[in-house]
Amino acid sequence: MRTAILISGRGSNADALLSMLTQDNTPGVASLLVSNRPDAGGLALGDKYGVPAVIVDHTDYDTRDAFEDALHDVLKEYEIELVCLAGFMRLLNADFVNRWRDRLVNIHPSLLPAYKGLETHARAIEDGARIAGCTVHFVRPEMDTGPIIGQAAVPVLQDDTPESLAARTLAAEHQLYPYCVRLIAEKRVRVKEKRVLIDECPIPNGILMMPSA
Ligand code: GRF
Questions:
Q1: 108 an active-site residue?
Q2: Summary mean pLDDT of the chain
């Protein structure tokens, strides 16, 4: 499955995805890295993994539609089948999202549907949440919605700052995102209405608890 990764910044999730996708034993193929920002640190991953890195700078386009058309053209040119948003900081119009329906995934640093939007870690700490986490989901036009493929939970500790919680969550993101993309590439993931069904999904044998017993 020819996969593109879209970034805007440092690209640590892109690194985790490319690391998985460039292994021999994955059905996914790392085919393209795209940044909407020419100064994104993550663009260096193209060289690291031998994957084409393309800049589609949104400031070169007068409208969001024109930018997204250019993005779509690049994805088509590389015959992309799956698009992974990994810290891609542009909202995408419904047209684009619908063109890539069920082939466009995102990672969000909260346990959706809680804490959509920005500042997820600060808000979770302020609310006194005991468990936080991250979510990989198919993208729908409304921000941070869409069928959930996978989630990983991390504890919120008493002395956490937004930065320390973000770091713990990011480590979980680097585990979760490649795992979910691998499931998609293995064609084990189906969308049924608002839910995702996974063939041969491992059945968990415990509960997540914080404070732990
Ligand atoms: C991650 O926390 C991701 O969940 C969010 O943006 C951040 C991107 O970080 N969507 P990185 O560029 O992958 O390091």
A1: yes
A2: 96
In this prediction, residue 31 carries a pLDDT of: 94
Query: pTM (2 decimals)?
Result: 0.97
Q: Is pLDDT above 80 for 213?
A: no
3-class secondary structure per residue, the chain:
CEEEEEECCCCHHHHHHHHHHCCCCCCCEEEEEEECCCCCHHHHHHHHHCCCEEECCHHHCCCHHHHHHHHHHHHHHCCCCEEEECCCCCCCCHHHHHHCCCCEEEEECCCCCCCCCCCHHHHHHHCCCCEEEEEEEECCCCCCCCCEEEEEEEECCCCCCHHHHHHHHHHHHHHHHHHHHHHHHCCCEEEECCEEEECCCCCCCCCCCCCCC
86 CA: nearest ligand 1 atom = 13
- Give the closest residue (by CA) to ligand 1 atom 14: 12
